[in-house]
From TrEMBL:
It comes from Paractinoplanes rhizophilus. SUPFAM superfamilies: alpha/beta-Hydrolases. This is Alpha/beta hydrolase family protein. Gene3D superfamilies: alpha/beta hydrolase (3.40.50.1820). Pfam families: PAF-AH_p_II (PF03403).
Length: 383
């Protein structure tokens, strides 16, 4: 079972989701939502890639994917900030959740489109991200740009036919318009994206529209230090890809249900961290079974008051949207639980960074992953 902003998926998970008025509050024009920026020392750059996996075809079409690369940048002042999501798919995303599609504008991110890569002189670890079912590659931008601001190159991918995605020629594809995408399909997508990063590292450009890459990108990729994280179905895909592809050295799973055929039950000796909410080991047997096959470093935490969307940008964006569309406090809690959005942002910044710093850089900044923290008392360590 996988869950996204789509109301039908939240209902399928048994979460209380109010159906609200589709009429926005009276105002001069749609408000722009806001997303908190990153805290690292580097400004952030980003670039989109239009990729084609010619080894796979669906309904007579080569599998096309949209991906975004996020990275430490410099000299960013002349490069525009990228939107969280293109306008057309954002309107459809709002509509899928039961909101007025014109209720708000997508936030801007901290990513400067096309800015040159920071010339650090050393290669940087790479992290890839896989989104939830019926969602999109921007859903965890808070985590993505936080990692990039601390010296990581992060690659996000839209899983076409299970994502709200727009291609450079204007085509918009929404979930359900093509074949059903399963967790192994998500894992195949990410494996293909890793192959394309190898092309970039060799000095070539895999973008099928031949749009230029940011200066310095290929030389900055350290493909010997690759991590992956995913939310919900993307978390299950993270486990599946770790089983089949040893290029992925560490995996962070954000409330993944671990439901797949075949299931992710191979013995893994590489580090895995679970941040669970709806799909705990106590309540989801597939998660417990997956946990039993982890024979390397492993950690399971759960944040009090969190629901399934709480480890994504929706914890902030639903709160931003609430006064615009007339959501009550109870309505908001039905969507995102009782975890304070500001605290959720701090947790999303701190724990993924600590995990990848430890396992891709060998860097331990404090004892955040060693046990309960006075700084984050709502984060519970599960034995």
């Amino acid at each position: 079972m996988t869950v996204s902003l789509s109301r039908r998926n939240l209902l399928a998970a048994g979460l209380a989701v109010p159906l609200v008025s589709r009429t926005p509050a009276t105002r001069s024009g749609p408000s722009r939502l806001r997303l908190p920026g990153p805290t690292g020392p580097y400004p952030v750059g980003t670039v989109n890639l239009h990729l084609a996996d010619r080894s796979r075809a669906y309904r007579g079409r080569v599998r096309e994917l949209m991906a975004s690369v996020w990275y430490p940048a410099h000299r960013t002042w002349s490069y525009p900030l990228a939107p969280w999501m293109d306008a057309a798919p954002f309107r459809l995303l709002l509509e899928s959740a039961g909101f007025d599609p014109d209720a708000a504008l997508a936030p801007r991110t901290a990513g400067h489109t096309g800015a040159p890569v920071h010339p650090s002189g050393v290669r940087m670890p790479v992290v890839v991200f896989s989104h939830a079912a019926h969602d999109h590659r921007s859903q965890n931008t808070i985590v993505v740009q936080e990692l990039a601001s601390h010296g990581y190159i992060v690659v996000t991918v839209d899983h076409t036919y299970d994502a709200f995605s727009q291609f450079p020629d204007g085509r918009v594809i929404v979930p359900g318009e093509g074949p059903v995408m399963l967790p192994p399909d998500f894992a195949d997508d990410v494996g293909f994206v890793l192959d394309q990063l190898e092309v970039v590292a060799r000095g070539h450009n895999p973008d099928i529209d031949h749009r230029p890459l940011p200066a310095g990108l290929g030389a900055a990729l350290d493909l010997k230090r690759i991590g992956m994280f995913g939310h919900s179905k993307g978390g299950t895909a993270t486990a599946l890809l770790m089983d089949r592809d040893r290029r992925v050295r560490a995996g962070l799973i954000l409330d993944g249900p671990m439901e797949s055929n075949p299931p992710p039950l191979a013995d893994l000796d590489r580090p895995v961290m679970l941040m669970t909410a709806a799909f705990t080991r106590a309540e989801a047997p597939p998660v417990a079974a997956f946990w039993s096959h982890l024979h390397g470093w492993r950690l399971n935490i759960r944040v009090e008051g969190a629901l399934h969307p709480s480890y994504t940008d929706y914890q902030v964006l639903i709160t931003e949207l609430a006064p615009i569309v007339g959501l009550s406090t109870e309505d908001v809690q039905g969507w995102i639980g009782t975890l304070d959005p500001g605290r959720a942002v701090q947790i999303q910044r701190a724990y993924p960074l600590a995990f990848f710093d430890l396992h891709l850089r060998g860097r331990r900044d404090g004892h955040l992953l060693d046990g309960p923290s006075r700084v984050f008392p709502e984060v519970k360590f599960l034995p």
